[in-house]
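call fold(seq) -> C-alpha cells
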Amino acid sequence: MKKIVSDSYRDQLKMLHDKSASFGVGSVTAKHYPTIFKYIEKKNYQSVLDYGCGKGHFLEAVKSEFSSIDVAGFDVASEEFNELKEREYDLVVCLDVMEHVEYGALASVFSEIALRTGKLFICSVANYPAAKKLPDGRNAHVTQLPFGFWFTLLSSAFRVDQFVRTNKAEGLFVCTPLSAEADWR
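ret:
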C-alpha cells in the first residue's frame, strides 16, 4: 500500500475521533445517502466500500437498507476499520473525507481508491473550514481546494461523470473508472 497518511497526522485523527463522539458519524454526509442508495438499487450493486468510513455510520445505513449487500469500511484513524482489503468493489464511496487527507497524500489515496473501484466512485467534498480542530490546533479540514482543482485531481484516476453542488461550498462527484482500452483520439 502506498503512503496515504503520515504517522503524526494519523495520531491527530485518532485523538480527534476518540475525543469527539460526533466526529466521523455522518452527520454532514447523511444527506447523500438517498442519492447513493438509488445508484445501489438501480445498478444492483452487490459490494460497497466506504473509504474513510469514520465510525461506520454509512456502513450501518447500507446494511439496514440492503441486507444482502457486501459492505466494507476503511479509515486510517480507526482500530475497527484499519484494514483495506486488496479487492474490487462495485461501489466505493468517500464522504467528507478528501478535505481530511493531507495534500501530499491525495494522489496515493486516489490511486488506492481507483484500484478498488469496479463500477462507480462517489465522493463528497467540503470546501470550508471544519467546526472541529485537530489536537494540535489545525483545522480538521487540512486540505481545502476549489472544486476545479478537485475535478482535476479526480480526473487523474477517474472519469468524472457528474458534479452536484449540494451546498455553497460542498459538492458530490460521481465517477467511473478510467478504461485502459479507451481511445482518446
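The longest strand covers residues 117-126.
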